[in-house]
Design brief:
It is built from 8 helices and 8 strands, in the order H-H-H-H-H-E-E-H-E-E-E-E-H-H-E-E. With 275 residues, it is an alpha/beta fold. It has a 6-stranded mixed beta sheet with strand order 1-5-6-4-2-3, with helices on one face.
């Protein structure tokens, strides 16, 4: 029997070595190394990357791929890297104006089109309630700063059921007429709660936030118990746009007539018909 390499020993046979390397490479844990170079890393380099991943994910930093780490690696998550791997400017990514326009045409199996609209409105409102931005829905994607769509497969940078749920571009070096794309995976089985959480996360990216550590909405993994910005998320978005002073008045969709009360993360949202 062939002797395992030190790099293979780090995985403890829980996951194939190549799968671990590919994951850590895709999400920024080897910095600017090429994929060819990553495949040749030694055991110490892999342990360092694994420890960094474990600390960021709220796991004990053992440096080994144990069962808990393997489970986390395979959970639903955002498709963006956890760290900046471009080596470019470290200046904050943000919009230069507070009137940010958006347009979405999203299909999410498991919930209705009406629920998709409500989920997106709640998601973007939760950011506008805590920082000084004025999001506005527009009637055509041509006028939108944030253009959210859904799709399936590799051509949309999606991987089917499980794994990546969605991704969003960040506003790095943009001006007021730039458009950023978002994509949500139609291969997933969505719930309303899940849609709010993932949309709010991706909108955080579209406003300029990177991934944040475990416990925040902007952590890379979907957590059904976190559907709104947490204190750490709020602290970071306020650094970009300042704190909101006047109450935010959410935009109503004139194409819908809905009423009742919706409870998200313990916070009530009253839905009233458009008059």
């Amino acid at each position: 029997m062939a002797k395992k390499s030190k790099a293979e020993a780090v995985t403890k046979s829980v996951l194939p070595l190549k799968e671990v390397l590919r994951y850590l490479y895709n999400y920024g844990y080897f910095g600017q190394k090429t994929w060819a170079a990553v495949q040749k890393v030694n055991g110490a380099e892999l342990q360092k990357a694994v420890r960094s991943y474990q600390r960021f994910s709220g796991l004990p930093a053992s440096g080994a791929i144990n069962e808990a780490t393997a489970h986390k690696l395979r959970r639903h998550r955002c498709g963006l890297p956890d760290f900046n791997i471009t080596g470019k400017s470290t200046d904050p990514c943000k919009w230069p104006m507070k009137n940010i326009t958006y347009y979405h045409e999203i299909t999410m199996p498991g919930i209705t089109d009406e629920q998709v609209v409500r989920a997106f409105d709640i998601a973007i409102s939760q950011w506008a309630e805590v920082c000084d931005i004025e999001p506005k829905r527009v009637d055509t994607p041509k006028r939108a700063n944030i253009y959210a769509q859904s799709g399936v497969g590799k051509r949309h940078r999606l991987d089917g059921a499980g794994g990546t749920l969605a991704w969003s571009e960040l506003p790095c070096g943009v001006h007021e007429h730039i458009q950023l794309d978002q994509m949500y995976d139609e291969a997933e089985d969505w719930s309303f709660n899940m849609a709010v959480a993932v949309m709010c996360h991706e909108l955080g990216h579209a406003l300029g936030l990177p991934h944040l550590s475990f416990g925040n909405l902007m952590a890379p993994y979907y957590d059904p118990n976190v559907t709104a910005p947490q204190p750490g998320d709020v602290e970071e978005i306020v650094k970009l746009y300042g704190a909101r002073i006047a109450p935010y008045s959410a935009q109503k969709d004139t194409a819908l007539s809905v009423h009742g009360q919706l409870l998200i993360n313990g916070r009530p949202y009253v839905l009233v018909p458009q008059t």
